[in-house]
Amino acid sequence: MNTIDTLLDKIEKAKALDFGTIFNQSIELFKKVWVQGLVMLLLIMLLMVPFYIIMYLPMLGMGLIDPQSFQNMENMQDFRPLLMIPFVIFAILFSIFAMVIGFGMKASFYRICKLKDLEEMGADDYFYYLKKPYLGKVIKLSLATFGISVAAMLLCFLPIIYVMVPLALMNAIFAFNPELSTSEIVKAGFKLGNKKWLLTFGLMIVSGFLAGIVGMLMCCVGIYVTASFSYLPIYFIYKESVGFDKKESHGDKESYGMSYE
């Protein structure tokens, strides 16, 4: 397992990476994990549905009981700001919940990517990091991500572009170093983000654009099939910069030996 000092040292000594190589590796891995990526996205959407229903059901009920209520609110008649407080609170809680689910399932997807890429034995567990002993740390990292994102947005446009890269890398760092503390994962994310910022940003933009275009060409529904492609360059940037510890499986136990890259 990587300690924070070992991880930071590996990041500092990381070799130069080639854009084309990472991109081609991502395409090859996508051929192996596109089904798992699709399942992950569908599960995230399915988990969100009950919260959307709970959020909008009171408004729908209000409209059915009094159809004029929305028109009165638009005209600022009988508008009561206090009635919006529960809705705003629930919207914030829903946003945090969505970030927790998204963060945990993406980390689980990266674990699946490693299994498929290195042809290791293991189950496609989409909820791997949403169970004990990892759930608490996923919540903390999601709150940290939320806080960093809000702070960046308050500082206007450029900071939010900058933090996109470290925040994306934090997900992979957690997936392969879950024993690190929340602050250590954030620190490592920014360390690797600073080291490989331009390459990572370029790959995120190009892979996201390509996934969107190809998905749209597949009658729009295909975007759910191709969307996970945009996550794969992050996996390879971590793999080529840090590497993995060789893992030997013994039932439910795992032992770690020398690293390879």
Sequence of strands across the biggest β-sheet: 1-2
Largest sheet: 2 strands, antiparallel
Distance between the termini: 14 Å
What is the percent of helical residues? Answer: over 70%
Radius of gyration: 21 Å
Beta-strand portion reads 5-15%
Mean pLDDT over the residues: 84
SSE-based structural type:
mainly alpha
The poorly predicted ranges are 248-261
Helices and strands, in N-to-C order? Answer: HHHHHHHHHHEE
Instruction: Give the overall shape.
Output: globular
Per DSSP E runs of 2 or more residues, the count of β-strands stands at 2
Number of helices: 10
Brief account:
The protein has 261 residues and is mostly helical. The protein is built from ten helices and two strands.
Structure explained in plain terms:
This protein has 261 residues and is mainly α. Helices cover 72% and strands 6% of the residues. The chain has helices spanning 4-12, 19-65, 69-74, 81-117, 135-154, 157-176, 182-195, 197-217, 223-226, 232-241, and strands at 244-250, 253-260. It has a two-stranded antiparallel sheet with strand order 1-2. Helix 2 packs antiparallel against helix 4.
